[in-house]
């Protein structure tokens, strides 16, 4: 299975491409914004597509023409302002979903926010609310399609070394989770069709990632 990793140069994306390349049955195609970012992924043996998420749907679809799955790990980051949150976390996600449909790619994994419910929007701090809104509507757009989607809702993301131990369910207590372990969860989701049509929250726990995914 060839996987287009959108946002490959991000912190989750870099872990994910490495883990995909370690799998016998998976190959990564890293979608990056700048050509100078390519060396890291080429050294891993991954294919590279230089595409900006602010490009049009046709450009994104061209990058997806030869893949079997898309993983959306891109994010505007907390310091870029509401405009980039709108352009990347909402419009970029929606364009990638539409590009998947155009390129006949059925499998789509979305990295969302921990809670994207209407209640979460209403209770979010002012600076964080636009991000939750963007993720809410991107998730809604995805679930309205006939794509084979999985939506992963990670807890507070850290750069701690991964433990390969998580708690994972439709609803879990809010907590933290290493980005490295979210990358492991993505790989396990791609390898397990039982995650299709599912959405779940993930925090650090006591169950090995592959076992946790089998329980979904």
UniProtKB/TrEMBL annotation:
Tell me the CDD domains matching this sequence.
SDR_a5
**Which Pfam families does the UniProt entry name for this protein?**
NAD_binding_10
What the entry lists under InterPro entries is as follows: NAD(P)-bd_dom (IPR016040), NAD(P)-bd_dom_sf (IPR036291)
Under SUPFAM superfamilies, the record lists: NAD(P)-binding Rossmann-fold domains (SSF51735)
Which residue numbers delimit the NAD(P)-binding domain? 7-192
Q: What is this protein called?
A: NAD(P)H-binding protein
């Amino acid at each position: 299975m060839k996987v287009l990793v959108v946002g490959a140069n991000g912190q989750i994306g870099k872990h994910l491409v490495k883990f995909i390349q370690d799998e016998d049955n998976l190959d990564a195609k890293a979608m990056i914004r700048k050509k100078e970012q390519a060396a890291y992924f080429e050294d891993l043996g991954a294919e590279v597509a230089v595409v900006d998420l602010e490009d049009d749907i046709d450009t994104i679809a061209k990058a997806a023409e030869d893949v079997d799955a898309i993983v959306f790990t891109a994010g505007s980051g907390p310091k870029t302002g509401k405009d980039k949150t709108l352009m990347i976390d909402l419009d970029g996600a929606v364009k990638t979903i539409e590009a998947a449909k155009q390129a006949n790619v059925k499998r789509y994994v979305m990295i969302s926010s921990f809670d994207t419910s209407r209640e979460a929007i209403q209770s979010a701090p002012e600076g964080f609310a636009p991000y939750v809104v963007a993720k809410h509507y991107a998730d809604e757009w995805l679930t309205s399609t006939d794509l084979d989607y999985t939506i992963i809702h990670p807890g507070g993301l850290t750069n701690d070394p991964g433990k390969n131990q998580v708690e994972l369910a439709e609803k879990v207590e809010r907590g933290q989770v290493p980005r490295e372990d979210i990358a492991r969860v993505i790989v396990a989701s791609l390898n397990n069709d039982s995650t299709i049509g599912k959405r779940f929250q993930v925090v650090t726990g006591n169950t090995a990632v592959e076992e946790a995914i089998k329980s979904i």
